[in-house]
Predict the structure.
Amino acid sequence: MLAATQPLTPTLESARRVLKQYYGYDQFRPMQQDIIQSILSGQDTVVLMPTGGGKSVCFQVPAMVQEGVCVVVSPLIALMKDQVEALKANGISAACINSSIGQAEQSSIGRACQAGMLKLLYVSPEKLLSEGFLSFLHRLKVSMFAIDEAHCISSWGHDFRPEYTQLRVLREQFPEVPIIALTATADRLTQRDIQQQLRLTEPKVFLSSFDRPNLSLSVRPGQDRVNSVVNFLKTHENEAGIVYCLSRKQCETLAGKLKEKGIRAGFYHAGMTDRSRSDVQEQFLRDDLQVICATVAFGMGIDKSNVRWVLHYNLPKNIEGYYQEIGRAGRDGAPAEAVLFYSYADVAQLRDMITKDADPRLAQLNSTKLERMQQFAEAASCRRRILLAYFGEVLEKDCGNCDICRNPPSTFDGTELAQKALSAVARTREAAPLSVICDVLLGRRNQGVISRGYDQIKTFGAGADLSFLDWQSYLHQLLNDGLLYIAYEQGYALKLTDLGWQVLKGERKQALKQFQVPQKAEKAPKGRAAKAATGQRLPSIADELFDRLRQLRKQIADEQGVPPYVVFSDATLQEMAIERPRTRTAMLAVSGVGMKKFETYGERFIDLITQHAGAPSPDDVPDVPSDEDDTPAPAKKRSPGTPSGTALDSWKMHRQGLSVEQVAEQRGLAVSTIKSHLEALYERGYQLRTEEFISQDDYARIKTAVQELGPDFRLRDLFDHLREQYDYFQLRVALTYDKRLRGELPNQPPVE
Ligand code: ADP
Ligand code: ZN
């Protein structure tokens, strides 16, 4: 393949060229660039980045520009297969070796490695540590080891893999080869374990923000869940998603109910045969199933980037798990939703399960974690801040993309109360757990307090005017807001963060909220709120062209036997739907369209976009004169999906004075569809009542913006430049108006 034939000097510049040529991306994300620089300098590197943050690029691109093969250790066969498929689709030579690969194929992969034909070799930890494999590696030039899902090394974590702890042999046997460890888990203990166990030498650690701004968060009461799910799906047609359930039975029942409603749903849990599990997974990956009802057994090996939503049918056991599960939505960066159904019954059930654990230490750890999960569900402050605070990250502002931000409860200046609590934490020398701090504030002289002399400190009894529940709630808020954290490994002691010290010293104010349980389901946001809800950063993907691009993607994916998101991500299709590239250059400028993909199927997407823009086709022209004629036109053969005739129908209704919304209503079509009809005809010379969409002032403003942007701007840039004042339809109309003025587009419909 292309990769092996082009040795490149490993510089950031060559890395950037690889990114463009193979991945179709113009730029590294900020942290990717620093990470790649570190790797290229031969340093051990630890990368902590959320799911969807772009970890793969961090080692794949350096692997491409360095001599030799990069050995990637990955814990799951499905995940490896997926990554290798995605690499190949981009024209990069990669392979995987694990227990599912036959001997003959393994030998041929081995030969390819020796011949320097492979840039990336994925192996399971078992395979890596197996007889003879390390000596095989000694015969190769290994550029680096990339340890994916590195948190599996930590026995504190939720995905502990004993084999991972033996990976230290890599450092012992290959002292010269740099190691890069990557994970989407960021807690302190895991991070420490990774560095120690892999024997990393002064690694550079990159802790990226764990924020996923494209993911909208909300919690709904857990009543009438089936109907809630059904209603949710009505507004998410054709969008793939996962419903996480607590029990196997529930997965099956829910999937059954959804199927009765005509939804393409399946279920997945650990009680199924391997065969049926992989079948279901495969159907989901290929967009043949829209919904998977699953236990937490589902997902770790899933690279599907076009999961648009994740529902939690039940409360998860802890925030780590929750964050990982919701992280499976929107990996491509396009807007996605996470909805959690919450009821006390779930808490009780989970607590029951947890306290049954034979190991009392573990039972206590897990029940503390469950409490934090419960606090999240009951929270009265920005949910994203809570999540990020849990992972030690402080978000300066509320997010605007969670249910609390959209529907905020009232707050009061809680600085003084916060200071009392923080001071109690400081004066107990940050050694007491939450319940003891409450006792200290309340002035309770019980064993835990007296034995440690806490009844002697200044804050003892400073909060006796409030109840235990009040203090508990305020302490939870301080934890959630990142003023305190829990040191699990030190008897659950509460400790102050920098932010906590600032509030304690009076350098910062702290707002507090009265505890509230969410009572009723949030109303679906409309208009302005809906815009905020889907994240200002990205436009809506409800668009006729987008749907057609998605259909073409599915068709190509089936022909090639790969999942649709391997062909192009939703984010890439979305950009195509906005920019509508009709030339090779324009298509290659779309983020996510690299050389190989362009060569393989770029033309087909260009054809579709051209067809979409070029309505009507000659076949349909007789429709115009037969305007007054009531006899139905004979059925004509059209190229599939050509909007032509139907576009003309919309246009005629528009000419008769109907608004876009009225046309949509009468025709039973989406407003976005009508708009795309009108745009297409306007470009072809048909007249529109443009003043209805943009005024002369608007036009002048848009034109100025165009001049400010200079040549070769993308529509998306124009949209951003104008601070999202105009939608894409208005921008397109203005641009076409301009081109018509300048004679670049016709002012008359074609005479055919
Ligand atoms: P992770 O492994 O951290 O979960 P991925 O490597 O799968 O994340 O990347 C998430 C998505 O972001 C993928 O669709 C990927 O192609 C895309 N991506 C990665 N780097 C960039 C970049 N520099 N520009 C645009 N998209 C990127
Ligand atoms: Zn928020």
